Amino acid sequence: MEEKQGVKIGMPIIGGLIAAILGGIVWAAIAAMTEYEVGLIAILIGVLTGYAVVLFSNKRIATVHKIIAVLFALVGILLGKYLTVVYFTSELFGDVGVMELVFDSEMISAFVETFQDYFSQPIDLLFIVLAIVSAWQIPGRMARTSLATDASSSDHAPRA
């Protein structure tokens, strides 16, 4: 899993996972504070996973890194939606804590059964597409920027 044709993917996967978890938590926290889901957070999750994958790959980017960023952006969005549902469910019942519900098998089953409902609005799909685009483009742009910086610094290096 770690290396395929000189491309390291283990650390970028860890970076993408960390970014997805943080992004999902931020999504749910903002939804809890505002009592409204802010779709722009999906784009933030895409950007965050893209940056994390780049940073954890030492700016050596291949197509597989872009795929990792996209997959973890989707994981982050899914986690954000799930944590938001858990939060509002705990608020509805009052006597059940959020942490108690997060790992509750009935809660997970209910979320899976109603999965389509949480992603059925066109605006949801728009923000998911924008998150995917962001997660895909950030690694490529950062890699190009890194290569340009490396090339320009080697052009100005003193010659022996």
What does the model show?
This protein is mainly α. The chain has helices at residues 10-34, 40-56, 63-93, 98-102, 105-113, 115-118, 122-155; strands at 3-4, 7-8. A two-stranded antiparallel ribbon has the order 1-2. A hairpin with a 2-residue loop joins strand 1 (3-4) and strand 2 (7-8). Helix 2 (40-56) runs parallel beside helix 7 and helix 3 (63-93) packs across helix 7 (122-155). The longest helix is centred in the C-terminal third of the chain and has 34 residues, at 122-155. It is elongated and about 50 Å long. It starts with a strand and ends in a 5-residue tail after the last helix.
Summarize the structure.
78% of the residues lie in helices and 2% in strands. It is mostly helical and 160 residues long.
Cα-atom radius of gyration: 19 Å
Q: Main beta sheet: strand number and arrangement? A: 2 strands, antiparallel
Strand proportion, as a percent range, falls in: under 5%
Distance between the termini: 42 Å
Please identify the structural class as seen in this structure: mainly alpha
Give the count of helical stretches. Answer: 7
Helix content: over 70%
Global outline: elongated
List keywords for this structure.
mainly alpha; 7 helices
Architecture blueprint of SSEs:
Blueprint lengths: L2 E2 L2 E2 L1 H25 L5 H17 L6 H31 L4 H5 L2 H9 L1 H4 L3 H34 L5
